[in-house]
Amino acid sequence: MLFVIIHKHTAEMCPAGVVRINKDWLKEVTNSFKNAKIKYLGGYANSPNHEFFFIIEADDLEEIDNAIEPLRRVGKVRIIPVLKFEEIELLASGRAQLLTE
Length: 101
What we know:
The chain is an alpha+beta fold. It has helices at about 25-35, 60-65, 70-75, 85-95; strands at about 1-10, 40-45, 50-55, 75-80.
């Protein structure tokens, strides 16, 4: 299943740091995603708003939970299950069915 993970932190908790980027934290996030049984599809940042957006594929919510632990330590995290737009088009056209049916 596909998920968008949205992470938001305050300026005070920013991993970019007051003086320099916290490279250890960035490495920890990267390793956490690599070590979890998830497929990392991409990551994006909205620096002025102190937000990160990650696209992942996963079958196990516990693995997602393990992957995002470093994010939780510095801010809030939302996990949102999503469908690709193309899948919605297929469903709407009647050419596909949800896997849960």
